[in-house]
Amino acid sequence: MVEQWRLRAGFAERLSRMYGREVPAYTTLVDVSREVNENVLRRRGTDAERLGSIGRVTAERHGAIRVGTPRELQQVARVFGALGMHPVGFYDLREPPASALPIVSTAFRPVDEDELARNPFRVFTSMLTVADARFFDDGLRSRLDAFLADRELFPPELLALADRAEAERELSEADAERFLELAVCAFELSADPIDAEWYASLERVSAVAADIGGVRSTHINHLTPRVLDIDELYRRMTGRGIEMIDTIQGPPLWPGPDVLLRQTSFRALAEPRAMRGADGSVRRGALRVRFGEVEARGIALTREGRVLYDRLLGLVDERAASRPAAERGAVARAVWAEHLPATEHELAARDLGFFTYHAVPDRPADGGGPPTDLAGLLDGGWLRAEPIVYEDFLPRSAAGIFRSNLDDTGPGDRTGEGDGEDGAYDADRLSAAMGRDVLDPFALYERQRDRSLALLPHALRPTRAPRHQGAS
After folding, report:
1. Could you give the count of Cα atoms lying within 13 Å of 314 in the half-sphere of its Cβ?
2. Domain shared by 240 and 343, yes or no
3. Where is this region: Disordered (predicted)?
């Protein structure tokens, strides 16, 4: 029998091979990522594996897909449920209004530490906000609803196998092979002609809307390897003549701890597609919707840490507003150095980052008893802190990647437009559509941290939570 984690690993591997055939520059990205990771490992030794073994980092991928309706989201949730992947987090990419995309998203991923260690494959999954009147007027919404209701993204046989795999947590080898074959096929780029007029009508709203609702199938929009030095990868890809987007999204490169997620990509390439005209004739066209993304993962931040992170982004925006774009990185590094702890130790002591905690068995005796607070236990060498890797996404970074690749200008700032229907899209609505809860990522990290604290000897369990100091 084939367990869920093996199904997940097999799906990720086959999807990577398929995407490499469809987008050859992705294979180059994977090769360069592997080279960079090997170089970092040679240079830094075991310290390079502090946020994951080199085997896990090199094999790690995340994908991105887009669907059009709650029904399609519910079906894709069944497919990923077969792989032991759960919806985690709610991301609203319709904000800020001036750069809004008509999608809301969640991420399907494993949630238990042992499952993440076996294979951490995750898929960022977006759904079109068809009912949002800021994007779609009544006439276009009616046509879009009819178009989406008439298509089938996932064949019944695939969904039946998915339901069995999720219920039984395994499939026979023959059924596993059939499931993987059907699942990978469901995310291949279709060769069917695209209605050029219909696609263009959606593209006037948003290139993302056209990519979702202008075709009769879904497809992988990008696959993302993980790299240990994203700045070096950016330089090497550029050196190979591959056009990268202008920036690395997320936190800046700085001497302190790596936190959250940094991402960049090569620009979406013009891919040949068959386009059907109003007279029924089919011509050769091209669309730019798929690209190759790469990521570097850091330490997960606590709720308080995320509030600080968001505030720092605002400070960077404010200070960089009157400066040349090329100076934004220097501005961000200065803001980080001014406000963020410079060490993992301080990040843990101030309760800004998530860590697991472990007793230090060979601490020299000094005749004193352990303190009762976490910061004191860390400062006194009673405990060591191991960082918890950030497994999720950043909406601002995701939107920046999408817009950099799709030239998605849309109709401009939508502030105040529409009838307020857009407010109905939230985590509860996605949960209801899927029949399964959208999990809170903070709660998952907290559970992992608290489990480690519960395993400490009683004398080393902190009775006072760390108190955040000096973050203003």
Report:
1. 7
2. no
3. 404-425
Q: Which amino acid is at 194?
A: I
Phi then psi dihedrals of residue 355, to 5 deg: -140, 160
Across the chain, what does the average pLDDT equal? Answer: 90
220 and 320 housed in the same domain: no
* Better-scored residue on pLDDT, 472 or 437: 437
Question: 430 and 106 in contact (C-beta within 8 Å)?
Answer: yes
Q: Which domain holds residue 319?
A: 305-386+451-460
C-beta separation of 411 from 76 below 8 A:
no
Q: Which residues have CB under 8 Å from 349's CB, separation 6+? A: 374, 375, 378, 379, 466
Q: What is the pLDDT of residue 218?
A: 94
**DSSP 8-state code for residue 16:** H
pLDDT at 410: 53
| Same domain assignment for residues 281 and 259 | yes
C-alpha to C-alpha distance for 264 and 438, rounded to whole angstroms: 27
Structure tokens at 194: 């695209």
User: Residue 353 has what DSSP assignment?
Assistant: B
C-alpha pair distances (Å), 298 with each of 22, 263, 389, 392: 30, 11, 6, 10
- Same domain, yes or no, for 207 and 335? no
In order, the DSSP letters of 412-433 are ---TT-S-SGGGG-SHHHHHHH
Domain count, the chain: 2
Please tell me the distance from the alpha carbon of residue 218 to that of residue 79, in angstroms, as a whole number: 14
**Cα–Cα nearest to 234, from 224, 252, 246:** 246
Question: Which residues face 264 on adjacent strands?
Answer: 294
Beta pairing partners, 88: 107, 439
What does the pLDDT look like over 244-274, one tens digit per residue? 888 899 999 999 999 999 999 888 878 889 9
pLDDT of residue 326: 77
- Domain identity same for 396 and 364: no
Whether residue 320 is contained in a domain is answered as yes
Q: How far apart are CA 194 and CA 216, in angstroms?
A: 8
